[in-house]
Design goal:
By secondary structure, the protein is mainly beta. Helix content is 0%, strand content 27%. The protein contains no helices and 9 strands.
């Protein structure tokens, strides 16, 4: 949890809107006892409130694909052969002709044949570098996705792999046409 010290001389307004006092914001707890020392205010009357709120999640890994012409360091793209025919590849750039009007975080994204349709018998993958979550109590994955796949024939999925064994631990999302 984090804490803010808010203060006002007129208590008629909502304390959630009171200004932060003396820069005392986003204070971390120091159990078993928490304290903040402030100088005695010059005001004859001043009111204080301690606001408590959850700390924002810690970002462990992020990628927008805007920093390099190709895949960022540590990312891998490949084909599962057979049956892949080699007609579709992962690319980094701005989508055009087919797909979304723009990248989820413009100007660039990673996608398959981002300026045309994917090919027949495509079986390809895109993998992030290994992400160490051993110290995390939980994790959240956020991403933008555009899927335009042939109904009844094609599918895509987002899966978590064991970085050492390269084995599937979980499928987070499966898109079936």
């Amino acid at each position: 949890m984090l804490y803010n010290l808010r203060s006002e001389t007129d208590p008629s307004s909502d304390p959630a809107g009171w200004p932060i006092y003396g820069g005392n914001e986003n204070l971390t707890a120091t159990p078993p006892e928490n304290s903040v020392t402030i100088a005695l205010p010059d005001d004859s009357e001043r009111f204080f409130v301690v606001e408590r709120f959850p700390a924002p999640p810690e970002e462990v890994f992020a990628e927008s694909f805007d920093g390099a012409a190709g895949l960022p360091d540590g990312w891998t793209a490949g084909a599962n052969t057979p049956p892949d025919t080699g007609t579709t590849r992962w690319e980094v750039g701005s989508p055009s002709a087919v797909g979304p009007a723009a990248a989820g975080t413009p100007p660039r994204c990673a996608g398959t044949n981002i300026s045309g349709d994917y090919g027949l018998e495509t079986d390809i993958y895109l993998r992030t570098p290994a992400i160490d979550l051993s110290a995390a109590g939980g994790a959240t994955l956020s991403y933008f996705q555009f899927a335009d796949i042939e109904e009844g024939f094609d599918a895509g999925s987002v899966a978590v792999l064991d970085a050492d064994a390269n084995s599937e631990l979980a499928v987070l999302e499966a898109t079936v046409g």
